[in-house]
Amino acid sequence: MSVVPPTPAQLQDVATQCGLSLTDEDITSFRGLIAQSLEGYRYVDGIPDELPAVKYARTPGYQPPPEENLRNAWYRKTSVKGASSGKLKGKTVALKDNIMLAGVPMMNGSATLEGFIPDIDATIVSRMLDEGAEIAGKVHCECFCTSGGSHTGALGPVHNPYKMGYSAGGSSSGSGVVVALGEVDMAIGGDQGGSIRMPSSFCGIYGMKPTWGLVPYTGIMPNELTLDHTGPMTATVADNALLLEVIAGDDGYDPRIKAPKVEDYTKALGQTVSGLRIGVLKEGFEHPGAEAAVNRAVHEAAKRFKDLGASVEAVSVPMHNQGALIWTPIGTEGATQTMMFGDGYGTSRSDLFSLSLMDFHRGWRRKANFLSEQAKLFLLLGTYINNTYGPRFYGKAVNVSRRLTAAYESALKTYDLLLLPTTPMKATELPPLNVSREDYITRATEMFTNTAPFNITHHPAMSLPCGMVDGLPVGMMLVGRHFEETTIYRAAHAFEQSGDWKKM
């Protein structure tokens, strides 16, 4: 990409944008100085990029026809076979379509990115393949991962595995569906406000949002650096713990990584919960729109832990009810400035930058009308706030989030785990095509009040199915101390083994 000096008119426009008043003489002087400074840009442009090698053979795959994709969960089907042995040998894995799989198309739920083909594998993809997994393809997610419903993807809504016409949750909608239907053994989701846990709740599977900084996000299209999480979505707790063992740990690229040491999470399987202290979070049952039947199912699940030998008590963290409000400036402005105006990455971080994604995604500015209504709302609000007030509210929300973290930490000094509904309601009906914008966005955001707080506090949180209401799953969330995923797996596995969740 040739870098050329600005014309006098271009430089005058830039000066105006920067609030500078330049004379013609100033313009001539600065153009000369800029021309000298571009030598570094030309050097960088001319040398080879530094990218990890792609190891395993693959084909672009194909977009399955409707009769092969009844719930519209799949974007591309393919088969990328990994090593001949390893922890995941014999396991098939689906990837949320914000995860790069070299040579296989990716659109991250947005028409503006359709046609992009990554040239690298995400770190977690390489790790799974090195351990013998087979990547079965890419599954739909919501438009740039900005929705908790499953109706905002560019290629149509994703339907619940238990009831057509109902939401599968988002934004990892396809991941939840293909695991619930048994079409793959495992899937990977992404989570900025609950996007692993919400579809896991709606689809009746196990979804773990690990501690921030445990699993590398390298090679996954970012939303917001401080909120980005990726993790396993599976039909069993054992598979979930196994997959986290494979994908966790420092990769030398991701600046988010805070815990290079990975635990043997599968060692938690089969342990009793005797002696565990579980706090049932009072505020998690009090959100507007909470369904009484969902609350009852989760309370009954809490009693089951007591029957299994755990100590179960009510606990109050009043600030939990404001967690989603604190999340809003971070999630909105962070995604607007990083994912959108930052061409997917932004600056000021040491990372592995996918230039091919950045160059392709830059074209969203010419296609913004094709974004989902929810993505448009993020873009409009984030841009307005930044233009008018700058990033001060983002900064203050990050500061205040430490108070929220401390509130949970205080409770977690007494309790090993916090327990609450993953989503205040079961899966809702998909909105019709002619729905108002207001109702469309309500269906995309109403379910994230319990999940979003733990994205900004970075605690590990897992959704596990704990019952059925009106033929649809109910999800219960367990939240642990930072980097204590093992405790969550210990409790989740004991609960799973205690009975068939569909009959609870």
3D structure, described in words:
With 504 residues, the chain is α/β, with parallel strands linked by helices. It has 2 domains: 39 residues, no CATH class; 438 residues, Amidase signature (AS) domain (Amidase signature (AS) enzymes), CATH 3.90.1300.10. It starts with 7 loop residues before the first helix and ends in a 7-residue tail after the last helix.
The H-level CATH homologous superfamily of the largest domain, spelled out, is Amidase signature (AS) domain
H-E string: HHEEHEHEHEEHEHEHHHHEHHEEH
Kindly state the percentage of residues in helix. Answer: 25-40%
Q: Any idea of the CATH class of the largest domain? A: Alpha Beta
Oligomer: single chain
Give a nutshell description of this structure.
By secondary structure, this protein is α/β, with parallel strands linked by helices. It folds into two domains: 39 residues, no CATH class; 438 residues, Amidase signature (AS) enzymes (Alpha-Beta Complex).
